[in-house]
């Protein structure tokens, strides 16, 4: 099953109801799927949004997992954020990350358009210095310190030290990962 199939079998709602631009970064752009960040590649798509923006499920499904996504103890310029994984009725897993507030628990069923939580502020501008990766310093300069980071999976990979903060530090990419660009682009046109 592909992202396009998920789209056909489910209603499909833009994950940020307050975001009327519905811009999807295309491959190669900053914040896009598999963006090359030098020592790491981006596992999802970033949708920049103000802290506190509502995040809703794009599909009907089940809340599969909720947890901590980033913590300042791991990387100094990170703030604490959370993730929610929803298994859509079509079988695919959608990971909504860099949330500041989570409103659901694992095991709950969820409808498309229902709130999962709110966008957090993943980057701490005061802690970003010259040692931070270039893409982080650019985000700070552009004031893009809060966003929804969204990943799509056919199956969830085993936990790995190579996966940190939505980036993959190994060769290739995490098993089961799918490009969400086309799915989001299709949803954005509804
Ligand atoms: Zn991201």
Automatic annotation (TrEMBL):
Record's protein name: M23 family metallopeptidase
CDD domains in the cross-refs: M23_peptidase
Pfam families the UniProt entry points to: Peptidase_M23
Domain of life: Archaea
Domain M23ase beta-sheet core stretches: 41-121
